[in-house]
Design goal:
By secondary structure, the protein is of the alpha/beta class. It is built from eleven helices and 13 strands. The strands form four sheets. Strands 3-2-1-4-5-6-11 form a seven-stranded parallel β-sheet, with helices on both faces. α5 packs parallel to α6 and α7 packs parallel to α9. Bound molecules: nicotinamide-adenine-dinucleotide (NAD) and uridine-5'-diphosphate-4-deoxy-4-fluoro-alpha-D-galactose (UFG). Nicotinamide-adenine-dinucleotide binds next to α1, α5 and β5.
Length: 341
Protein backbone atom coordinates (compact mmCIF):
# COMPACT_ATOMS: atom_id res chain seq x y z
CA UNK A 1 0.00 0.00 0.00
CA UNK A 2 1.21 3.52 -0.84
CA UNK A 3 0.78 6.42 1.59
CA UNK A 4 -0.01 9.60 -0.35
CA UNK A 5 0.28 12.72 1.81
CA UNK A 6 -1.65 15.66 0.38
CA UNK A 7 -3.61 13.16 -1.70
CA UNK A 8 -6.83 15.18 -1.84
CA UNK A 9 -4.92 18.17 -3.30
CA UNK A 10 -4.44 19.01 -6.96
CA UNK A 11 -1.42 16.91 -7.99
CA UNK A 12 -1.97 14.31 -5.25
CA UNK A 13 -5.52 13.47 -6.37
CA UNK A 14 -4.44 12.95 -9.99
CA UNK A 15 -1.55 10.79 -8.83
CA UNK A 16 -3.95 8.69 -6.73
CA UNK A 17 -5.94 8.02 -9.93
CA UNK A 18 -2.78 6.89 -11.75
CA UNK A 19 -1.64 4.74 -8.81
CA UNK A 20 -4.98 3.05 -8.17
CA UNK A 21 -5.63 2.38 -11.85
CA UNK A 22 -2.20 0.73 -11.98
CA UNK A 23 -3.28 -1.63 -9.18
CA UNK A 24 -1.77 0.06 -6.12
CA UNK A 25 -3.76 0.37 -2.91
CA UNK A 26 -3.64 3.91 -1.59
CA UNK A 27 -4.07 5.55 1.80
CA UNK A 28 -4.33 9.34 1.81
CA UNK A 29 -3.21 11.52 4.71
CA UNK A 30 -4.37 15.13 4.36
CA UNK A 31 -5.36 17.85 6.81
CA UNK A 32 -7.71 19.44 4.21
CA UNK A 33 -6.12 22.87 4.64
CA UNK A 34 -6.21 23.34 0.85
CA UNK A 35 -8.56 20.63 -0.46
CA UNK A 36 -12.00 19.17 0.10
CA UNK A 37 -13.22 15.82 1.33
CA UNK A 38 -15.58 15.59 -1.68
CA UNK A 39 -12.52 14.71 -3.78
CA UNK A 40 -12.73 11.20 -2.28
CA UNK A 41 -16.13 10.64 -3.92
CA UNK A 42 -14.67 11.74 -7.24
CA UNK A 43 -11.71 9.39 -6.81
CA UNK A 44 -14.12 6.54 -6.06
CA UNK A 45 -15.75 7.17 -9.45
CA UNK A 46 -12.44 7.25 -11.31
CA UNK A 47 -10.73 4.27 -9.63
CA UNK A 48 -11.50 0.60 -9.05
CA UNK A 49 -11.76 1.16 -5.28
CA UNK A 50 -12.12 4.11 -2.94
CA UNK A 51 -8.82 5.17 -1.36
CA UNK A 52 -8.47 4.96 2.41
CA UNK A 53 -8.41 8.39 4.00
CA UNK A 54 -7.03 9.76 7.26
CA UNK A 55 -7.64 13.39 8.14
CA UNK A 56 -4.50 14.56 9.90
CA UNK A 57 -1.33 16.59 9.77
CA UNK A 58 2.07 15.33 8.60
CA UNK A 59 3.65 17.29 11.44
CA UNK A 60 1.85 15.16 14.04
CA UNK A 61 3.97 12.12 15.06
CA UNK A 62 1.07 10.34 16.77
CA UNK A 63 -1.08 10.56 13.63
CA UNK A 64 1.83 9.29 11.55
CA UNK A 65 2.56 6.38 13.88
CA UNK A 66 -1.08 5.34 13.84
CA UNK A 67 -1.17 5.46 10.02
CA UNK A 68 1.93 3.25 9.74
CA UNK A 69 0.54 0.88 12.41
CA UNK A 70 -2.84 0.61 10.71
CA UNK A 71 -1.84 0.16 7.03
CA UNK A 72 0.84 -2.05 5.42
CA UNK A 73 2.63 0.92 3.84
CA UNK A 74 5.57 0.08 1.57
CA UNK A 75 6.28 3.57 0.17
CA UNK A 76 5.32 7.21 0.65
CA UNK A 77 4.60 9.85 -1.99
CA UNK A 78 4.80 13.19 -0.19
CA UNK A 79 2.74 16.05 -1.67
CA UNK A 80 1.51 17.66 1.55
CA UNK A 81 2.81 21.19 1.87
CA UNK A 82 2.19 24.84 1.20
CA UNK A 83 2.95 26.13 -2.28
CA UNK A 84 2.23 29.84 -2.80
CA UNK A 85 5.45 31.75 -3.48
CA UNK A 86 4.01 35.19 -2.59
CA UNK A 87 2.43 33.91 0.63
CA UNK A 88 5.75 32.33 1.62
CA UNK A 89 7.45 35.73 1.46
CA UNK A 90 4.86 37.08 3.92
CA UNK A 91 4.69 33.99 6.16
CA UNK A 92 8.09 32.27 5.97
CA UNK A 93 7.75 30.39 9.26
CA UNK A 94 4.51 28.73 8.12
CA UNK A 95 6.36 27.44 5.05
CA UNK A 96 9.42 26.17 6.92
CA UNK A 97 7.18 24.54 9.52
CA UNK A 98 4.84 22.85 7.06
CA UNK A 99 7.30 21.96 4.32
CA UNK A 100 10.55 21.32 6.22
CA UNK A 101 9.32 20.24 9.66
CA UNK A 102 6.45 18.28 8.04
CA UNK A 103 8.94 16.36 5.87
CA UNK A 104 11.29 15.67 8.81
CA UNK A 105 8.43 14.38 10.99
CA UNK A 106 7.27 12.15 8.15
CA UNK A 107 10.78 10.76 7.52
CA UNK A 108 11.25 10.06 11.23
CA UNK A 109 7.95 8.19 11.35
CA UNK A 110 9.02 6.22 8.27
CA UNK A 111 12.26 5.34 10.04
CA UNK A 112 10.30 4.10 13.08
CA UNK A 113 8.07 2.02 10.79
CA UNK A 114 11.04 0.82 8.70
CA UNK A 115 9.50 2.17 5.46
CA UNK A 116 12.30 3.56 3.30
CA UNK A 117 10.91 4.36 -0.14
CA UNK A 118 10.07 8.04 -0.58
CA UNK A 119 9.00 10.25 -3.49
CA UNK A 120 9.23 13.99 -2.83
CA UNK A 121 7.45 16.91 -4.60
CA UNK A 122 10.14 19.42 -5.42
CA UNK A 123 10.03 22.32 -7.85
CA UNK A 124 11.85 24.07 -10.67
CA UNK A 125 12.04 27.07 -8.32
CA UNK A 126 15.15 25.47 -6.76
CA UNK A 127 17.24 26.51 -9.79
CA UNK A 128 19.34 29.66 -9.43
CA UNK A 129 19.84 30.33 -13.13
CA UNK A 130 21.05 31.40 -15.64
CA UNK A 131 17.87 30.50 -17.52
CA UNK A 132 18.94 30.89 -21.13
CA UNK A 133 19.11 27.15 -21.80
CA UNK A 134 17.06 24.12 -20.82
CA UNK A 135 17.61 23.47 -17.10
CA UNK A 136 19.44 20.29 -16.16
CA UNK A 137 19.45 18.58 -12.78
CA UNK A 138 23.15 19.38 -12.31
CA UNK A 139 22.60 23.14 -12.77
CA UNK A 140 23.30 25.64 -10.02
CA UNK A 141 20.74 25.68 -7.19
CA UNK A 142 19.51 28.55 -5.02
CA UNK A 143 16.12 29.93 -4.18
CA UNK A 144 15.24 33.58 -3.79
CA UNK A 145 12.07 33.07 -1.72
CA UNK A 146 11.07 30.95 1.32
CA UNK A 147 8.87 28.49 -0.62
CA UNK A 148 11.66 27.47 -3.01
CA UNK A 149 14.16 27.51 -0.15
CA UNK A 150 11.97 25.19 1.94
CA UNK A 151 11.99 22.67 -0.95
CA UNK A 152 15.74 23.01 -1.41
CA UNK A 153 16.32 22.41 2.32
CA UNK A 154 14.26 19.21 2.14
CA UNK A 155 16.25 18.07 -0.92
CA UNK A 156 19.43 18.61 1.14
CA UNK A 157 18.01 16.73 4.12
CA UNK A 158 17.12 13.84 1.82
CA UNK A 159 20.66 13.82 0.39
CA UNK A 160 22.11 13.62 3.93
CA UNK A 161 19.71 10.83 4.86
CA UNK A 162 20.48 8.82 1.74
CA UNK A 163 24.19 9.19 2.32
CA UNK A 164 23.90 8.10 5.98
CA UNK A 165 21.50 5.23 5.24
CA UNK A 166 21.98 3.88 1.70
CA UNK A 167 19.10 1.43 2.05
CA UNK A 168 16.67 4.33 1.52
CA UNK A 169 15.20 4.68 -1.96
CA UNK A 170 14.47 8.36 -2.56
CA UNK A 171 13.31 10.40 -5.55
CA UNK A 172 13.16 14.22 -5.68
CA UNK A 173 10.94 15.25 -8.56
CA UNK A 174 11.32 18.85 -9.72
CA UNK A 175 8.05 19.88 -11.33
CA UNK A 176 7.98 22.68 -13.85
CA UNK A 177 4.47 24.18 -14.38
CA UNK A 178 1.74 21.59 -13.72
CA UNK A 179 -1.58 22.49 -15.39
CA UNK A 180 -4.72 20.79 -16.73
CA UNK A 181 -7.06 18.31 -15.14
CA UNK A 182 -8.21 14.71 -15.44
CA UNK A 183 -9.93 14.20 -18.80
CA UNK A 184 -13.20 13.25 -17.05
CA UNK A 185 -13.55 16.81 -15.69
CA UNK A 186 -14.23 15.31 -12.24
CA UNK A 187 -11.04 16.47 -10.53
CA UNK A 188 -8.83 19.49 -11.12
CA UNK A 189 -7.32 22.52 -9.46
CA UNK A 190 -9.58 24.83 -7.43
CA UNK A 191 -7.59 27.75 -6.12
CA UNK A 192 -9.15 29.62 -3.23
CA UNK A 193 -9.94 33.23 -4.17
CA UNK A 194 -8.43 34.85 -7.25
CA UNK A 195 -5.95 32.47 -8.89
CA UNK A 196 -2.30 33.50 -8.96
CA UNK A 197 -1.40 31.10 -11.73
CA UNK A 198 -1.97 31.63 -15.42
CA UNK A 199 -4.05 28.59 -16.43
CA UNK A 200 -6.75 28.72 -13.71
CA UNK A 201 -7.00 32.49 -14.20
CA UNK A 202 -7.53 32.02 -17.95
CA UNK A 203 -10.25 29.45 -17.26
CA UNK A 204 -12.08 31.94 -15.05
CA UNK A 205 -11.82 34.70 -17.67
CA UNK A 206 -13.10 32.34 -20.40
CA UNK A 207 -16.06 31.35 -18.21
CA UNK A 208 -17.00 34.99 -17.55
CA UNK A 209 -16.09 34.91 -13.83
CA UNK A 210 -13.39 37.52 -14.43
CA UNK A 211 -13.28 40.32 -16.96
CA UNK A 212 -9.77 40.05 -18.37
CA UNK A 213 -6.32 38.60 -17.85
CA UNK A 214 -3.48 40.84 -16.76
CA UNK A 215 -0.44 39.78 -18.77
CA UNK A 216 2.38 40.51 -16.35
CA UNK A 217 5.01 42.10 -18.60
CA UNK A 218 5.44 42.27 -22.39
CA UNK A 219 8.99 43.58 -22.41
CA UNK A 220 10.91 40.42 -21.55
CA UNK A 221 13.69 39.17 -23.83
CA UNK A 222 11.44 36.41 -25.19
CA UNK A 223 10.06 36.02 -28.75
CA UNK A 224 6.82 37.94 -28.03
CA UNK A 225 7.96 39.78 -24.88
CA UNK A 226 5.79 37.73 -22.46
CA UNK A 227 7.01 35.16 -19.92
CA UNK A 228 7.83 31.65 -21.12
CA UNK A 229 7.23 28.50 -19.03
CA UNK A 230 7.34 24.72 -19.45
CA UNK A 231 3.70 23.71 -18.83
CA UNK A 232 3.13 20.06 -18.03
CA UNK A 233 -0.21 18.19 -18.02
CA UNK A 234 -1.03 17.02 -14.49
CA UNK A 235 -1.82 13.48 -15.72
CA UNK A 236 1.63 13.26 -17.34
CA UNK A 237 3.01 14.39 -13.99
CA UNK A 238 0.91 11.76 -12.19
CA UNK A 239 2.23 9.06 -14.52
CA UNK A 240 5.79 10.22 -13.80
CA UNK A 241 5.19 9.51 -10.10
CA UNK A 242 4.02 6.03 -10.98
CA UNK A 243 7.18 5.48 -13.04
CA UNK A 244 9.41 6.88 -10.27
CA UNK A 245 7.80 4.69 -7.65
CA UNK A 246 8.11 1.61 -9.83
CA UNK A 247 11.76 2.46 -10.46
CA UNK A 248 12.57 2.89 -6.76
CA UNK A 249 10.78 -0.32 -5.86
CA UNK A 250 12.51 -2.43 -8.50
CA UNK A 251 16.01 -0.96 -8.82
CA UNK A 252 18.59 -3.46 -7.61
CA UNK A 253 21.68 -1.30 -7.03
CA UNK A 254 21.41 0.95 -3.99
CA UNK A 255 22.48 4.57 -4.35
CA UNK A 256 24.26 7.04 -2.12
CA UNK A 257 22.27 9.94 -3.60
CA UNK A 258 18.56 10.55 -4.12
CA UNK A 259 17.34 10.19 -7.69
CA UNK A 260 16.67 13.80 -8.73
CA UNK A 261 14.72 14.42 -11.91
CA UNK A 262 13.18 17.32 -13.81
CA UNK A 263 9.59 16.78 -14.85
CA UNK A 264 8.59 19.00 -17.76
CA UNK A 265 7.93 18.68 -21.48
CA UNK A 266 11.13 20.44 -22.56
CA UNK A 267 9.03 22.96 -24.53
CA UNK A 268 8.40 26.52 -23.37
CA UNK A 269 5.29 28.54 -24.27
CA UNK A 270 4.73 32.26 -23.82
CA UNK A 271 1.75 33.74 -22.01
CA UNK A 272 0.28 34.87 -25.35
CA UNK A 273 0.72 31.40 -26.87
CA UNK A 274 -1.17 29.91 -23.91
CA UNK A 275 -3.92 32.54 -24.25
CA UNK A 276 -4.38 31.67 -27.95
CA UNK A 277 -4.42 27.92 -27.24
CA UNK A 278 -7.03 28.48 -24.50
CA UNK A 279 -9.20 30.54 -26.86
CA UNK A 280 -9.11 27.67 -29.35
CA UNK A 281 -9.86 25.01 -26.73
CA UNK A 282 -12.72 26.93 -25.13
CA UNK A 283 -14.16 28.71 -28.17
CA UNK A 284 -14.23 31.85 -25.99
CA UNK A 285 -12.52 35.17 -26.67
CA UNK A 286 -10.22 36.02 -23.75
CA UNK A 287 -9.90 39.68 -22.83
CA UNK A 288 -6.38 40.68 -21.75
CA UNK A 289 -4.35 43.74 -21.05
CA UNK A 290 -0.65 44.24 -20.63
CA UNK A 291 0.41 45.16 -17.11
CA UNK A 292 3.80 45.74 -15.43
CA UNK A 293 6.03 42.75 -14.68
CA UNK A 294 5.10 40.74 -11.56
CA UNK A 295 7.72 41.08 -8.81
CA UNK A 296 10.02 38.06 -8.64
CA UNK A 297 9.08 36.64 -12.08
CA UNK A 298 11.77 35.27 -14.35
CA UNK A 299 11.57 35.86 -18.12
CA UNK A 300 11.72 32.24 -19.11
CA UNK A 301 12.71 28.76 -18.04
CA UNK A 302 12.11 25.27 -19.27
CA UNK A 303 13.29 21.76 -18.46
CA UNK A 304 15.69 19.38 -20.02
CA UNK A 305 13.59 16.27 -19.27
CA UNK A 306 16.18 13.91 -20.79
CA UNK A 307 17.25 12.27 -17.53
CA UNK A 308 13.67 11.30 -16.60
CA UNK A 309 13.32 9.67 -20.02
CA UNK A 310 16.63 7.86 -19.67
CA UNK A 311 16.08 6.60 -16.10
CA UNK A 312 12.30 6.11 -15.96
CA UNK A 313 11.42 5.73 -19.63
CA UNK A 314 8.91 8.55 -18.95
CA UNK A 315 8.16 11.48 -21.19
CA UNK A 316 5.19 13.82 -21.35
CA UNK A 317 2.60 12.76 -23.93
CA UNK A 318 0.01 15.53 -23.71
CA UNK A 319 0.44 18.85 -25.52
CA UNK A 320 -0.74 22.41 -24.88
CA UNK A 321 -4.12 21.87 -26.61
CA UNK A 322 -4.93 18.97 -24.28
CA UNK A 323 -3.79 20.96 -21.23
CA UNK A 324 -6.18 23.79 -22.19
CA UNK A 325 -9.08 21.53 -23.23
CA UNK A 326 -8.93 19.54 -19.97
CA UNK A 327 -8.67 22.72 -17.87
CA UNK A 328 -11.74 24.06 -19.69
CA UNK A 329 -13.74 20.84 -19.20
CA UNK A 330 -12.90 20.95 -15.48
CA UNK A 331 -13.90 24.63 -15.29
CA UNK A 332 -17.30 23.82 -16.85
CA UNK A 333 -17.86 20.80 -14.54
CA UNK A 334 -16.79 22.58 -11.36
CA UNK A 335 -18.97 25.61 -12.15
CA UNK A 336 -21.94 23.23 -12.63
CA UNK A 337 -21.34 20.83 -9.72
CA UNK A 338 -19.64 23.00 -7.11
CA UNK A 339 -15.90 22.81 -6.64
CA UNK A 340 -14.70 19.57 -5.09
CA UNK A 341 -11.02 20.35 -4.52
P1 LIG B 1 -2.36 21.46 -3.15
O1 LIG B 1 -2.40 22.57 -2.17
O2 LIG B 1 -3.51 21.30 -4.10
O3 LIG B 1 -2.16 20.06 -2.39
C1 LIG B 1 -1.44 19.96 -1.19
C2 LIG B 1 -2.29 19.13 -0.22
O4 LIG B 1 -1.57 18.97 0.99
C3 LIG B 1 -3.62 19.79 0.12
O5 LIG B 1 -4.66 18.85 -0.04
C4 LIG B 1 -3.47 20.22 1.58
O6 LIG B 1 -4.70 20.17 2.28
C5 LIG B 1 -2.45 19.21 2.08
N1 LIG B 1 -1.61 19.65 3.20
C6 LIG B 1 -0.90 20.80 3.29
N2 LIG B 1 -0.23 20.83 4.45
C7 LIG B 1 -0.49 19.66 5.09
C8 LIG B 1 -0.08 19.09 6.32
N3 LIG B 1 0.75 19.75 7.15
N4 LIG B 1 -0.53 17.86 6.66
C9 LIG B 1 -1.37 17.19 5.85
N5 LIG B 1 -1.81 17.69 4.69
C10 LIG B 1 -1.37 18.91 4.30
O7 LIG B 1 -0.98 21.61 -3.97
P2 LIG B 1 -0.48 20.85 -5.28
O8 LIG B 1 -0.45 21.82 -6.40
O9 LIG B 1 -1.20 19.57 -5.45
O10 LIG B 1 1.04 20.58 -4.86
C11 LIG B 1 1.45 19.36 -4.28
C12 LIG B 1 2.94 19.43 -3.97
O11 LIG B 1 3.66 19.71 -5.18
C13 LIG B 1 3.29 20.53 -2.97
O12 LIG B 1 4.27 20.04 -2.10
C14 LIG B 1 3.86 21.64 -3.87
O13 LIG B 1 4.80 22.41 -3.18
C15 LIG B 1 4.52 20.82 -4.98
N6 LIG B 1 4.62 21.58 -6.25
C16 LIG B 1 3.49 22.13 -6.81
C17 LIG B 1 3.61 22.87 -7.98
C18 LIG B 1 2.39 23.50 -8.61
O14 LIG B 1 2.55 24.40 -9.46
N7 LIG B 1 1.18 23.09 -8.28
C19 LIG B 1 4.87 23.06 -8.59
C20 LIG B 1 5.98 22.48 -8.00
C21 LIG B 1 5.85 21.72 -6.81
N1 LIG C 1 0.96 35.28 -15.68
C1 LIG C 1 0.28 36.37 -16.20
N2 LIG C 1 -0.92 36.71 -15.64
C2 LIG C 1 -1.47 36.01 -14.60
C3 LIG C 1 -0.76 34.89 -14.07
C4 LIG C 1 0.45 34.56 -14.63
O1 LIG C 1 0.74 37.01 -17.14
O2 LIG C 1 -2.55 36.39 -14.13
C5 LIG C 1 2.25 34.89 -16.28
C6 LIG C 1 3.43 34.99 -15.32
O3 LIG C 1 3.95 36.31 -15.29
C7 LIG C 1 4.40 33.95 -15.90
C8 LIG C 1 3.46 32.89 -16.48
O4 LIG C 1 2.18 33.53 -16.64
O5 LIG C 1 5.11 34.51 -16.97
C9 LIG C 1 3.26 31.68 -15.55
O6 LIG C 1 2.91 32.14 -14.26
P1 LIG C 1 2.31 31.14 -13.14
O7 LIG C 1 1.95 32.00 -11.98
O8 LIG C 1 1.24 30.29 -13.73
O9 LIG C 1 3.53 30.18 -12.81
P2 LIG C 1 4.99 30.50 -12.25
O10 LIG C 1 5.96 30.01 -13.27
O11 LIG C 1 5.12 31.90 -11.82
O12 LIG C 1 5.07 29.62 -10.92
C10 LIG C 1 4.69 28.23 -10.88
C11 LIG C 1 4.09 27.93 -9.50
C12 LIG C 1 5.14 27.98 -8.43
C13 LIG C 1 6.25 27.03 -8.77
C14 LIG C 1 6.80 27.41 -10.12
C15 LIG C 1 7.89 26.40 -10.42
O13 LIG C 1 3.08 28.89 -9.20
O14 LIG C 1 4.60 27.55 -7.20
O15 LIG C 1 5.76 27.39 -11.12
O16 LIG C 1 7.81 25.74 -11.51
F1 LIG C 1 7.22 27.15 -7.84
Amino acid sequence: MILVTGGTGYIGSHTCVALMNAGYHVAILDNLCNSRIEVLNRLARLCPVRPDFVEGDVRDPSVLDSVFARYPISAVVHFAGLKAVGDSVKNPLAYYDNNVNGSVQLLRAMQRANVKTFVFSSTATVYAGPFDEALRESDRLGASQPYGHSKLVVEEILADLQSAEPDWRIACLRYFNPVGAHESGLIGESPLGAPNNLMPYLAQVASGMREFLNVWGNDYATPDGTGVRDYLHVMDLAEAHLAALHHLQTVTSLSTKPLTLNLGTGQGYSVLEVVHAFEQASGQKIGRQFAPRRAGDIAQYWADPGLAKQVLGWQAKRGLQEMCADTWRWQLHSAKDGEPS
